Amino acid sequence: MVKICCIGAGYVGGPTMAVIALKCPAIEVAVVDISVARITAWNSDQLPIYEPGLEDIVKQCRGMNLFFSTEVEKHVSEADIIFVSVNTPTKTRGLGAGKAADLTYWESAARMIADVSKNDKIVVEKSTVPVKTAEAIEKILTHNCKGIKYQILSNPEFLAEGTAIEDLFKPDRVLIGGRDTPEGQKAIQALKEVYAHWVPEENIICTNLWSAELSKLAANAFLAQRISSVNAMSALCEATGADVTQVSHAVGKDTRIGPKFLNASVGFGGSCFQKDILNLVYICECNGLKEVANYWKQVIKVNDYQKNRFVNRIVSSMFNTVSGKKIAILGFAFKKDTGDTRETPAIDVCKGLLGDNAHLSIYDPQVTEHQIQKDLSMNKLDWDHAIHLQPMSPTVMKQLNVVWDAYEATKGAHGLCLLTEWDEFKTLDFKKIYDNMQKPAFVFDGRNIVDVQKLREIGFIVYSIGKPLDGWLKDMPAVA
Question: What does the record give as its pathway (predicted)?
């Protein structure tokens, strides 16, 4: 029996290995992690991450050919193919701080693999890593090989949170990069045969290592660029009276462009977009490509501008202050159908409002109070942020209340902000909400999910990103 081990039981490792186990019953799959709490959760009825369809797959395969364990070295030693899916955060200090990826966990994993291996291994990069990481890992393994042969492959993930299982079942493409040597090609074929259990061969793309690594960064950069582009247009739409939804629809009808990722919003979030673009900027700078680096840097700056603009719009609309006012925050996750809050725009919006002494009442169906408290009190990387977006002190947490009902969150509020496009927010009884809010009652729709006209008829003053401005707002520009 072929044995696969995945180091890292997070958002990528857990779902990916669960689907491999489901689709390849003859392969034994072990997911290992040093976090006892995380592995305990994977072995319980309350999985550590929320992803539609994941729980059913785990329950079907767990204990059969899918195992979650903290015995890292044992399973790595026994495996034929090792996926490495550890975190690659942005460096916060030293050379490349604020841009370069921190490969501490990757290097540690590589040295551990070299220490415990007793037979030849295929080591697969599953984390998003800088170009040439495979070469560095290869050097570590080669210089500590003790006669054992290693083949390094790059197999980047292209999952979207909230649809990860569907993405794994029917991927647009599976990308495998390896060395152009007989051994490298054999390793590529071995991994290709795993995916071929359910992925059509024409959807499995084989490249060299560097192309595979760069393709992941490029894909995320292109997607983030589309979001920043439509968000830049949303600001112009508000200034001119155009409707960004109509503009996006017209633009998306061009088959050369297409309709995806053209929804204006308060900004992009998630664990990859900002981190990968920062990494891309750093790689460009290291290779002397200053103009290219500045181009990608602007994608991040527009994203930060959009969050700033949203906060400024709220404050200026409410008589230029939210001090002491209750603001309801509906949605904290960076997108619907996930509990992930990494780089969620809600963090910056909430910090901006807290910076003006607002009192926040937050509701998200999948994010815990502990996570929200943690996100709003921790430091984050600074990228030309305005003063009111700087990390808050613990005393600010007194201005924060996390509730488990949208109606409770909005009761007595002066304004409400929609920051995640959860389906349940589209069917709320806004008349009931309006009756229980302070007047004038404001709605700030950061995801363009409400019927603006209907809410205005109820009595709300509505701001929806990129839509023609409410008469109330026209003389109150959202300047940074």
Answer: Nucleotide-sugar biosynthesis; UDP-alpha-D-glucuronate biosynthesis; UDP-alpha-D-glucuronate from UDP-alpha-D-glucose: step 1/1
Q: Which residue type does 186 have?
A: K
How far apart CA 122 and CA 184 sit, in angstroms, is: 9
Whether residue 272 is annotated as binding a ligand: the answer is: yes
430 is in an annotated binding site: no
How far apart are alpha carbons 104 and 89 in whole angstroms? Answer: 9
Half-sphere exposure of 251 (CA within 13 A, CB side): 16
19-70 pLDDT per residue, tens: 999 999 999 999 999 999 999 999 999 999 989 999 999 999 999 999 999 9
H or E segment and range at residue 329? strand 326-330
What would the pLDDT profile of 390-432 be if each residue is shown by its tens digit?
A: 455 555 568 899 999 999 999 999 999 999 999 999 999 999 9
Amino acid identity, position 420: T
- Where in the sequence numbering do the catalytic residues fall? 272
- Residue whose tokens read 């390896």: 178
Residue 88 counted as an annotated binding residue: yes
Instruction: Say if residue 297 carries a ligand binding annotation.
Output: no
How far is Cα 193 from Cα 153, in angstroms, rounded to an integer? 14
Distance of alpha carbon 132 from its chain centroid, rounded?
23
The angle, 0 to 180 degrees and rounded to 10, between the axes of the packed helices 209-240 and 133-143 is 150
In DSSP terms, 330 is beta-bridged to 363, 418
